Please model this.
Amino acid sequence: MSRQHIISLLLENEAGALSRVSGLFSARAYNIESLTVAPTQDPSLSRLTLVTVGSEETIEQIKKQLNKLVDVVKLIDLSESFSLERELALIKVKKTDAIVNKVEALSKDSSAHITDETDGYLIIELAGEKPWLDDLLLSLTDDILEIVRSGVIGLSRGERALSL
Amino acid sequence: MELSGGEIVIQSLKDEGVEYVFGYPGGCVLHIYDAIFKQDAVQHVLVRHEQGATHAADGYARSSGKPGVVLVTSGPGATNAVTGIATAFMDSIPMVIITGQVPRPVIGTDAFQEVDTVGITRPCVKHNFLVKNVSDIAETMKKAFFIATSGRPGPVVVDIPKDITDPNIKVPYSYPEDVSMRSYQPTVSGDIGQTRKAVKLIQEAKRPVIYSGGGVILGEASEELRTLCHTLQFPVTQTLMGLGAFPGTDPQSMGMLGMHGTYEANMAMHDSDLIIAIGARFDDRVTGKIAEFCPHAKIIHIDVDPASISKTITVDVPIVGQVKPILLDMLAQIEGLGETFDRARIADWWNKIEEWRAVDCMAYDMNSGTIKPQYVIEQLYKVTKGEAFVTSDVGQHQMFAAQFYPFDKPRRWINSGGLGTMGFGLPAAMGVKFAHPEANVACVTGEGSIQMCLQELSTMLQYDTPVKVINLNNGFLGMVRQWQEFTYKRRYSHSYLEALPDFKKLAEAYGHVGMQITKKEDVEPALREAFAMKDRTVFLDFLTDTEENVYPMIESGKAHNDMVMAPSSKYKKGSS
Ligand SMILES: Cc1ncc(C[n+]2csc(CCOP(=O)(O)OP(=O)(O)O)c2C)c(N)n1
Ligand SMILES: [Mg+2]
Model:
């Protein structure tokens, strides 16, 4: 059975390290739903988070192949632990009362808010778990003029940490 | 000591103990070549094509266990080397390939002879580096050798921009004693608990098979494998890459398995209740149809690469680590069992295997008036007393060599198993000769393959590396023709080679000895004559039967017990 996994890596912050990871996925025909990468507090290390879908066997292979890359320092499958995940989306919409009301209602129990208003256009910032975000964006499809999503990031909760 | 970048490259090789560099010069490596000129510790071998350099370094590595080293220029030098790099990668051969790159200021501008070498080679190297500073060269070289030779070995590319090899810019040099990399820790020792589980299965097995591969040779564990096999008295089959790790002439050997493996090996795999896979990776040419692979067997898998475990075939007891200590560990446990380890329990199994063996699956028509390729290999075996280093190209001749020349020692059989690179054999043979100047080296090839790196005959004359080229000339891209015979109703689409050169004259034109053999009775005398010419390269062009096939054959997508058998074998349909 196929399932979605969020895999986080600590990667040497070297030119080409990212292409080793993305190249692995294309060469071995693995799925990749999102991928995000940025340096950590230690400038020699980047943290890369990717979302992939596959059977248990495929996910096992993906993790082994990732670990085999010389630039990968450490790896964690966030889906295997009690973890917290977030994705950020920015959407541009035309300002209408309906939209403003909707965002206001949302802001009561989520982080959704209007972050910019220019010439009658709004940028709305939405951050939350991917499934929540997917549903919400679906309900806004007709209003969305432009969208950008960050891809999923995540941390395991409690003491467990992906660090050296 | 202050050295320029170019000098550092060469000094690093020297400090790494490198004897030979196989290479070809060009603009971006001229500073490095100048550094080569000024010393004589590291010998440079000037090939005729960069592909030849990589295969020669590869043959050197496979036959000696030491890393092979290549030096080529940027752009076309690097792209010409790619086939050889991929060949080494697929067979896990330790190599370091130094490629020149355009100067840093022009990288990314489509400069003359610029290609993204790191990008092009990324999917077919264990790792690669673009060196950005002259002060990083020594450490990068050390890392390259460390990565290439440790864990599961493989090729490493070091791409060096020309400007950091400038003779006028000198920096302090010291070669690191060792390197540690936080992201690469290859030495893992097998889990003792897993070994215990394996030994338990071994104790209970009634129809065991030891399936060993190239990893045993790479892991220098042939001795341990032999002891283990002899202690257990289990039947042994070896992959194309593993031949020689266990002696091919040993009574316990069932020969090779897989697509052109023996009847007994494949049938035993199919009926087995325990497979002990050692340094083998369940390649598709070995497994055949995955869904019907060893349907009754539990599987133990020993491998240094965790990613090889359960990649295509799910295994029951994986043991990840260096083969040698794991085998020693297993042996100690089995010896500890003493008399309680019962060998009589597999007597029936051996009887069954003997029945399969009696089918004589590789029998060929010995009365044929033509020169049968199998016959040539048998005579080669006889004349060299089974002790030659044999390289091969890719095709039917490769399979005939693997089937009819039983290797009793590791590192004697040198072929491109994973990538199946035509053109590998001749330069590889030259590389073997550099590692073993006194040994008999034969290159078994076909008239198709030999023309893919033929130009190295010139290098072989220059460096005096006498090799015997055994050209099994069937006038066909034989392996292609065989597939067309079996699966395309004999529609021989572009597998016939017209207008072949006169190989005898060609060899002579290159300054070597050429012979053409057209009669069966001349085969053995010609081989004797050729091998008697110790210090000459002799090209023996055997005009063989044009449409002989390699048997047995498991057609792709079929299971181990579904083989096409040789017409000359004693196999009767339904007799198994
Ligand atoms: C570089 C390369 N191109 C194509 C192939 C596909 N191929 C595999 S065997 C073969 C025929 C080889 O012919 P020859 O060298 O004459 O050997 P034979 O099979 O006749 O013994 C070909 C074309 C290959 N393995 N390598
Ligand atoms: Mg041929």
Observations:
- Chain B has a mean pLDDT of 96.
